[in-house]
Structure formats: structure tokens, C-alpha cells
Write a structure and sequence with these properties.
Helix content: 25-40%
Strand content: 25-35%
Number of domains: 1
Largest sheet: 5 strands, mixed, barrel
CATH architecture: 3-Layer(aba) Sandwich
CATH topology: Rossmann fold
Radius of gyration: 16 Å
CATH superfamily: Nucleoside phosphorylase domain
CATH class: Alpha Beta
Distance between the termini: 6 Å
Strand order of the largest sheet: 3-7-6-4-8
């Protein structure tokens, strides 16, 4: 466990999603909301801790009404990148060879953007969040192993704001159980 403890960090947007007291054995850092905050805080955490693995946990809206609970993410998309008027696909960053990121062999897709989703976006993805793509891209560039788990907090619909507020801290126990069983903590 000590070997894992010193090589693994958990990044979460908000303390309400995962208080440090839930996994006191591990390093938990809070990124804040959105891609820029997540990018900045991820780079800070890498510089400070030099981890071998970064795990991102947080809430997400679902675009598939049959998805609920805690889910592992394997594909990361930047859902609000739209340079389609220049001939690029939705989600594709112009002149960048990294657009869709795949880290795991199992799991769902997550579209990350700098807006809270209250209606279905124009890009196909299972879940929507506001940080995962940014963290995944930094891990890919820095060659750091990355895992991501999202708890479905809302249905990304007109009621999403209220539903998210009600469910922001409900995924914490499922995530803690997953981490403890996976890493023998």
C-alpha cells in the first residue's frame, strides 16, 4: 500500500464530491470546475507529487437514461471544441493530433466542456462533465497512467441543476469502495 500511496493521486473538482477524510491514506487534490482549472491543477499536482497514476473522480450528467451509478470512463472527448466552420469535426482541435483520447479497454465515453449541460449536446457521448478531458490530455502528454470514474448525478436535462445539487456527494461511497478494493487500501 505504501508503494501505491506514494505513486497515486486523486483529482476531484470539488471537495463536496470527495472529502479528504474519506481516503486519508491517499493524496486528494481539488482542481476546481472547468478545463482550465483542471489543466492548471493537474500540472501543479504532477510537479509536486510526480505520480505514476492519476485518478479523476467526479460527477457527470448522463445522455443515456440507462446509465447510472459509478462508471469507469475509457474515451474522452472535448465536446465544446467546434471548429466545424474550418472543416474540422466537432470535438476536434484544429492542428492538434490529440482529439479523442482513449485510456482504458473498458468503460464509457465522456464529453468534457466548459458549460453545465441541460440539454443534449451535438456530439455523441455517454456522459458529460467539465474536467476529465483536460486531465486525460495532460496525463497522455506527460505519459502518466490515468483512470477516471464518474458518478451519474443528473440526466443532463432541464432539471440537471437541481438534481446535481441533490446528488453531488452520493457517489463518494461507491468510489471509495472501488479504490479500496482495487488498490488493497
Amino acid at each position: 500500500m505504501n508503494k501505491i500511496k506514494n505513486k497515486l493521486i486523486i483529482l476531484v473538482a470539488l471537495e463536496e464530491e470527495l472529502p479528504k477524510s474519506m481516503l486519508p491514506e491517499l493524496i486528494i487534490e481539488y482542481t476546481g470546475v472547468g478545463k482550465i482549472n483542471a489543466t492548471y491543477r493537474t500540472l501543479e499536482a504532477i510537479q509536486k507529487y510526480n505520480p505514476e497514476i492519476i485518478i479523476n473522480f467526479g460527477t457527470a450528467g448522463t445522455l443515456n437514461k440507462n446509465i447510472f451509478g459509478l462508471n469507469e470512463i475509457k474515451i474522452f472527448i472535448q465536446r465544446d471544441m467546434d471548429a466545424s466552420k474550418l472543416g474540422f469535426n466537432l470535438g476536434e482541435t484544429p492542428f492538434d493530433n490529440i482529439s479523442t483520447i482513449k485510456f482504458s479497454e473498458k468503460g464509457l465515453s465522456c464529453g468534457t466542456g466548459d458549460n453545465f449541460v441541460t440539454e443534449s449536446p451535438n456530439i455523441k457521448t455517454d456522459l458529460v462533465d467539465m474536467e476529465a478531458y483536460a486531465i486525460a490530455k495532460i496525463c497522455l502528454i506527460k505519459k502518466i497512467d490515468f483512470k477516471c470514474f464518474k458518478y451519474v448525478s443528473d440526466k443532463a436535462d432541464e432539471n440537471a441543476g437541481d438534481t446535481w445539487k441533490e446528488n453531488i456527494n452520493k457517489g463518494c461511497l461507491a468510489f471509495v469502495e472501488k479504490i479500496k478494493s482495487t488498490y488493497n487500501i
